[in-house]
Specification:
about 190 residues; alpha/beta; Rossmann fold; 9 strands; about 25% strand; globular
Length: about 190
């Protein structure tokens, strides 16, 4: 699949069927096989909604460094307005749970009303159980507690987007290469 936008670049998505290894061909994973930084490189558009400038700027800069296109909003209202005017799809919503006026759970409900399949990561300094009570039945929301590191953020984003890609592709390997960054990521 090829997506091309003049002046913004081209994305090629190649989906290959998975291959089962022959018996005995699988090697044992050793403790030294820790994920490398390159394994958290990804592709896609992420909307970060956070009223604390330092957290929003850190998150946006960290995700851009990992190859994601990042849109930013300081409030839930600004996020809804942004989603109403941009033409490209958003692959992931990352939102703070507690914000003035429109809080995270309200934003998630509004976004899911318009885009039910939108993957969501909620970030919060409060306990996950407190946040989950406000969401009701919607269990398909991922949680990342504050404070978090670059590695934790990048790992959670990659985990969620890989899960979505796996649901779309089934058991296949997906390679995404972007012309503008030259980055390639594999999603299982």
């Amino acid at each position: 699949m090829v997506d091309s936008v003049p002046g913004q670049g081209t994305t090629f998505t190649i989906m290959l069927p998975s291959h089962a290894a022959e018996a005995g061909a699988v090697r044992k994973v050793e403790a030294t096989d820790a994920p490398e930084a390159s394994e958290t490189i990804g592709a896609g558009t992420v909307l970060v909604v956070e009223d604390e400038d330092a957290v929003r700027l850190f998150s946006a800069r960290a995700l851009r460094a990992k190859g994601y296109k990042v849109l930013e909003a300081r409030t839930g209202e600004a996020a809804m307005e942004l989603m109403g005017v941009i033409e490209e799809p958003i692959d992931l919503l990352i939102t703070d749970a507690v914000m003035p006026e429109m809080d995270g759970p309200t934003l998630i409900k509004n976004v899911r009303d318009a885009t039910p399949e939108m993957p969501v990561i909620c970030i919060s300094g409060y306990a996950e159980e407190t946040f989950r009570k406000r969401l009701g039945e919607d269990t398909d929301i991922h949680f990342l507690p504050k404070p978090f590191s670059l590695a934790q953020l990048a790992g959670k984003v990659k985990e969620v987007l890989d899960r979505v890609a796996h649901q779309i592709c089934g058991p296949c390997l997906c390679f995404v290469a972007t012309h503008d960054t030259g980055l390639v990521s594999n999603r299982l």
